[in-house]
Amino acid sequence: MSGQRVRRWWGLLLAPALAAGMLVPSAAAAPTTPPPPAPAQPAAALACAITAGGLIGERWHALNAEAGPLGCPTGPEQDVPGRRGRKQSFDRGEVVWSPDQGPNLVVSAYRVHNDVTVDWGPTNDPWSYDGFLISWFHQGLSRVEDVYGGPRTWGTFTMPLTRGPGRYDFTVTGCDKRPGQSGFKCNQGAAIPVSVTLPDLAGTPTGCPGPAVEGNLGRRWRELGGATGKLGCPTGAAFNGPKGRVQPFAHGQLAESPAQGGNLVVATYSVNNRVYLEWGPTDGFFYDYFIVRWYQPGRDPRQADVKYRQDRRREGHFSFDAEVAGEIQVELQGCDTGIGGAQCKQGWTQRAATTVRFAGGVDLRGFTATQPAQAPQHLDKRRELVTEYQACQSVLSPTGEKAGENTGIAFMAHLDRLRRKGVTSQCANQAPSQELVNRALRHTRPYMTGSSTDDIPTCHRDADYDAVLKSLVVISGKYWDLLYPLTRKHLLQHLLTENGPHSVDDEKITVCGLVDVPETENHRLLIESSRYLSNQRLREATGEARYDNAANGMREHLLRQLQTFAKHDFMEYNARPYQRYSLNALLNLFDHAQDPAIRTAAQIVLDYATTKFALSSNQLRRAGPFRRIADRADADNQSYYAGNSDPQTGFFQLWTGLLANTGDHIPPQFSGEALIVGVSGYVPPRAAIHRAMDKSVAYQHSFQHGPRPKLSFSADSAMPGVEIYASSPSFQLTAGGIWGNSGYGMDEVRGSKLYGRAQATTLMPTRNTPGRETRTDDLIRFDGFHNSGGPADRDRVNTCVAGGFACGLRLVVPQFLRECAQRVVEARWEFLNLNTPACGNLGVYVALNSVDKASASHGVVGVLHAVESTTMDFAAFHTRTRERNPNLTNEISTQEAGVMTTADGHRYQFKLNTGDNYETLIKSIDGQSQPHWSTAPLVSGPILRSRGHEGFLEINHPECQATTTLDYRDPLNPKITPGTCG
Known about the structure:
Blueprint: H1 3-19, H2 54-62, E1 78-79, E2 86-90, E3 93-97, E4 106-112, E5 115-121, E6 131-138, E7 141-148, E8 155-160, E9 166-175, E10 194-198, H3 215-223, E11 239-240, E12 245-249, E13 252-256, E14 265-271, E15 274-280, E16 289-295, E17 302-307, E18 316-321, E19 326-335, E20 352-356, E21 362-363, H4 379-393, H5 405-421, H6 433-443, H7 466-478, H8 485-495, E22 508-511, E23 515-518, H9 521-542, H10 554-568, H11 578-592, H12 596-616, E24 617-618, E25 621-622, E26 626-627, H13 634-637, H14 648-656, E27 665-666, H15 671-678, H16 686-693, E28 699-704, E29 722-728, E30 731-734, E31 737-738, H17 747-750, E32 756-757, E33 761-765, E34 780-782, E35 797-798, E36 801-802, E37 805-808, E38 811-812, H18 815-820, E39 822-826, E40 829-833, E41 844-852, E42 860-868, H19 874-884, H20 888-895, E43 897-901, E44 907-911, E45 922-925, E46 928-929, E47 939-940, E48 944-946, E49 952-957, E50 962-967, E51 975-977
Antiparallel strand pairs: 1-2, 2-3, 3-4, 4-5, 5-8, 6-7, 6-9, 9-10, 11-12, 12-13, 13-14, 14-15, 15-18, 16-17, 16-19, 19-20, 21-27, 22-23, 24-25, 26-32, 28-29, 28-47, 29-30, 30-33, 31-35, 33-34, 34-38, 36-37, 37-42, 39-40, 40-41, 41-42, 43-44, 44-45, 45-46, 48-49, 49-50, 50-51
Helix pairs in contact: 4-5, 4-15, 5-6, 5-7, 6-8, 7-9, 7-11, 9-10, 9-11, 10-12, 11-12, 12-16, 14-15
């Protein structure tokens, strides 16, 4: 027989034995008989007429007692005939003590709508298992599910009940090996069954206005939660479809399909773009598996097989992510396997549909800001709306699935919403939020931290659990009181996997089990910050000395790690998306570290990073160079509000409320970033908020990261990045920077995505042309040297920017700007007055002098000068520029260098290209020589500046003549001296 057929028959044989209690512990393995649980003791503080005690009472309290999903006890604790153990019934479930499977083993089951959750444990002292089998029984039918890969002594299992009303019994069996594997055994047998009852709700009031919901459709709708459940209220009366009755609801449809089973009802509903399907029972037919097919607007039909490990089915559930918005229709058919192939004799069911509406982002109309003084006025309201959006538009699987970064963000959103709205709150067509997030957390399983790798196709490493940990440590610090005690135990004992002292193993990953390569900077920071905060929580919970961050060396390790960023910026500077990871780790330390030095260190790096973004962005759009991931450049994204663009854009949208360019909405792709900073108490320095929003004063800042310490396990040192940002009220000139190696070694093998990316040098207007979102291709820019072999930007040096002057290779002027501008063309000169109504009154004049070198690497080369239109009239700008630069075209053509004297009286000596990444392309300004970039400090400029690369930074707020100092010269004693205006 095939392996599939063997597994199916194994399930059919095993289930009756489990039901009959035939699988009992072997005599040789039996532990010492424990005493029975203590009888229930009254507790004056409880609201229930009957209470629970002993181990059963402990489980009840661990699930939040009467306020939790079990509700109140409905009767006293009782013996179990024929078994050692006790059981007690509750409003919505049952709890049993089953000592034959572990002296302290307790199994609980409860129901929320039609979802049943079974929790069990602990089986240890003496047993632990590779996995567990969950058997369930309803009206003479039995099924077996398996739960492997989780904790070895406890677990959680959730499933929807789709077979209709009645009592459902569940047993838990711990097993070694998987079914069908050599050595598979379940020596201790099945625990005492625990039950839930799904009442027959047909005919109960709907609680909804409008059409009635009757018959099998009405019964199933009520089981799914009715008005406050998965489908919401009916939006129309039932109608006859081609194969059965259908009724529409707020979030989906129910469909009868009697040809596939006399009582079969198919339920389809959606949360954001996740579509859920629940069906059953196909009474009269058993199937080996089901095929689910769905239809999306404008797309070919898609389908998936839903198979089960052990037995034939009459029911099931499935979910998928819709690719497009609109009505999604779903149908299914049951199939049998055979020698001649699959047979699906009953055909496809009646289709059921749900309408997927992709959320358009966080609507903040009425709570935005345009001036710095307005930014804090509605900050908390923006936080509240981001929390509401992220909680109710994110998907937390009701039955559990592998957690990722978005799962952790959804956890925080639900918990923050509970904090704001109360523990009884819930989002539309979702389970009550406290139960949903507690259940989902108990379903969560850890996996490897650190980088996932696909550099070598045959050696994939599936990791990134630290992207979940960064949210779990926030939950353990900020939302601890909203967790059930059972959830807290799971979090402490199973999910906080990074703890204790620093491990050198976390500084590397092993590719193919053979080659050690350095772990990336952002993952190191996520792991170490999570380890530090996990230790803090575990020390409080256990008192164990190994979690003392001072004694185990974590405090010093982390302080030295953070100092590097204050001296050299991040190695992954401006990274897309890893800047989000790194800054999230720092936010966590700022919010939750108890050690003042750690909090101060985190704030120093955060203040530097956020002030830098404010100075280097225009309308929260940043176009500078970055290291990782190289294929997320502006030329690829086009939009500066795209999901692959700068993550700090989303941070600052929340902090500032500056949202005119995105329709007073935070785009959905930045809602996660907004939630991360929304649940944090950190806000950037006043000077950063001011400069992010107010560009009325011109300034220039440059950054040179300096020679940083080589990363452990790397053969290469990371090349320092160079960044230049020249801001004026109506525009910003951004240097594209230089190409850089990754700093991680083995670049030729691991590919180009780790490199430091040199972007185009861009002229970005502050305002937009009417009817256009300013995109990368809409900017006047120097794309820079194009390398024909290897990374296209490998030899690119785009650092020719000072004030309103820029120079470079491969000049591009968008045609629409030439058409909307007042334009003068003379020989190789081009003058553009962009302060025209057609252009959107951009407030800028631009002069360009260029020569076409007719080569792919150089293209059109030349210079650019931009000035505010308020400083002179366009005729004067044109005349002065031409008169002062009679030989410029010849110089550029013959030397690729020259001197330009601008209309506003400055003199720039320049060269267009160099083989030395750190040679200054602007050789002198007004006769003053410009030094080699290798001698430059970390940052220089009027608002943010540093003393070399020693860890001493100053943030100046010119409007109030105050300076804040960030002094991180002593790695173990960081200090902040605030200015008088913060």
